[in-house]
Specification:
Shape: globular
CATH superfamily of the largest domain: Hypothetical protein ph0010, domain 1
Helix content: 25-40%
Number of domains: 2
CATH class of the largest domain: Alpha Beta
CATH architecture of the largest domain: 2-Layer Sandwich
CATH topology of the largest domain: Glycoprotein, Type 4 Pilin
Structural class: alpha+beta
Strand content: 25-35%
């Protein structure tokens, strides 16, 4: 991915949010109007921060559309549809910092018990998804900054998934992934 492609992705995220502010609904774009790198099928998360604090984060774990479309869709979602936050306002928008995390494919982690899973994690590098038929949650690798201890990282991920923090992982599947991050000011 070229530096121009990175700038285009950040600009398209801002355009998506501006469209939402101006029209109160998501817009759309045509992937064929962009470089072949941005037309590749990819999964991403768009994270918004305001004054160093999380302001919204929406994305997908499974690649199903062109990267440029995924960024456009999830930028709007992060600004207006993250259930943890009220919709972004026009007053906040100029001060929002945007980060785009492009995900690698998921790799299942085979483990015997929680200790074995924790040993296999690479703090600061691995994103982690846990799931069973009723629960699912993920933490992007950036979450390691606030939860640097693997046991705490996993405990909080279990809680996010709606599981008891002491839930036995025998009925859980775990998947790791890496990200390629693009952010404003890089």
């Amino acid at each position: 991915m070229t530096e121009d492609d990175k700038k285009v992705l950040l600009n398209i995220a801002r355009l998506s949010i501006q469209h939402g502010l101006d029209h109160q609904y998501p817009g759309n774009i045509s992937p064929k109007d962009y470089s072949s790198a941005l037309q590749q099928i990819a999964a991403c998360f768009v994270t918004l921060q305001l004054n160093g604090e999380l302001r919204g984060c929406i994305g997908t774990l499974l690649a199903h559309q062109a990267l440029i479309s995924d960024v456009y869709e999830h930028a709007h979602g992060a600004a207006f549809n993250d259930p943890r936050f009220s919709a972004l306002t026009a007053k906040e928008f100029p001060n929002v910092h945007i980060e785009i995390s492009i995900l690698s494919s998921m790799q299942e982690i085979i483990f015997k018990n929680e200790e074995d899973l924790l040993k296999q994690l690479k703090p600061g590098v691995d994103g982690l998804t846990i799931e069973n038929p009723l629960h699912r949650a993920t933490f992007l690798p950036q979450v390691w900054k606030s939860l640097p201890e693997p046991i705490n990282f996993l405990h909080q991920l279990k809680l996010k998934a709606g599981l008891n923090g002491h839930h036995n992982l025998l009925d859980i599947k775990a998947f790791r992934y890496r990200i390629f991050s693009i952010e404003e000011g890089q």
